[in-house]
Amino acid sequence: xxxxxSIAGATPLxxxxxxxxxxxxxxxxxxxxxxxxxxxGGAGGQFIAGTLGPVYGWxxxxxxxxxxxxxxxxxxxxxxxxxxxxRSEVALKMRFGGEEEEGTGEKG
Length: 108
Description:
single chain; mainly alpha
């Protein structure tokens, strides 16, 4: 239950940050890649649990997927910064001004 709650809470935040980080042209591709990664992670976790759980008990699969997740979370905390809200929104740039981005004709 806790995992489901955390995923349900984190997914909207993730896509909000993607919208602020990537421009309109890249947003669809990045959102699709993230969606695929979420599904592959869920399938991989089920595979590990189904394979190792009956042999070693339910705790081993949890440990095996928790360790990489914790390491990746630490890397994300150290390396990533929160993007400026609305930084990639063309409509906001046009309304509030900004410099033109090179080669795009869009204000930034």
